[in-house]
Amino acid sequence: MKRAAAYNWLARVRDEMEAARFALAVVLRDWHLHLSAAPLHRGRALSVGDLQRCRAHLELTYMLRLFASWEAILRDYWLRGLGRDTVPELNQLVDSLAARRKIDPDTVARVHDLRRFRNEVVHENLQLLRYDFGQCAGGLGKFIAHLPPNW
């Protein structure tokens, strides 16, 4: 993989989030035009309330996609770039890569804080965002900047 491809992978997640945000805004604004096309699920049609909940959780949903993509990039580097066939826990993976690539302690601390935030979202059903998508992308992207250009 090339580091540029890793950045593009993360950028596509951001672009998909913006596309979904735009689509939701249009459908919610013109709901009366789309009402008859609303799909049925469990015996009822999709409602405005469903779309509003989707919009309210959209950034959080895409942050989880961002983290998943970022972790996949790190694991790809671990496997293909370093030739390691183990599957360490993410915190151990981050620390090992940080030591190997001599990543500054502030960047590593930031990534661990973002990782703990992600864990709170996933395991504790956290709904309030301490970080927005851009802050997460920036912190995770800074870590990727320390990987080699090609692996």
The sequence of SSEs as H and E is HHEEHHHH
Helix proportion range: over 70%
Unreliable spans are none
Side by side, the strands of the main sheet go 1-2
- The tally of strands reads 2
Which class do the helix and strand fractions yield?
A: mainly alpha
On the 0 to 100 scale, the average pLDDT is 95
Can you describe what's shown?
The structure is a single chain. This protein has 151 residues and is mainly α. The chain contains 6 helices and 2 strands, in the order H-H-E-E-H-H-H-H. The protein has helices spanning 3-29, 31-34, 48-81, 90-101, 105-124, 133-144, and strands at 40-41, 44-45. Strands 1-2 form a two-stranded antiparallel sheet. The longest helix has 34 residues, at 48-81. It is elongated, with a radius of gyration of 19 Å. It starts with a helix and ends in a 7-residue tail after the last helix. The model has no long low-confidence stretch (mean pLDDT 95).
Helix-strand blueprint:
Blueprint: H1 3-29, H2 31-34, E1 40-41, E2 44-45, H3 48-81, H4 90-101, H5 105-124, H6 133-144
Antiparallel strand pairs: 1-2
Keywords:
72% helix, 151 residues, elongated, two-stranded antiparallel sheet, mainly alpha, 2 strands, 6 helices
Task: Please sum up the structure shown.
The chain has 151 residues and is mainly alpha-helical. The protein has six helices and two strands. A hairpin with a 2-residue loop joins β1 and β2 (44-45).
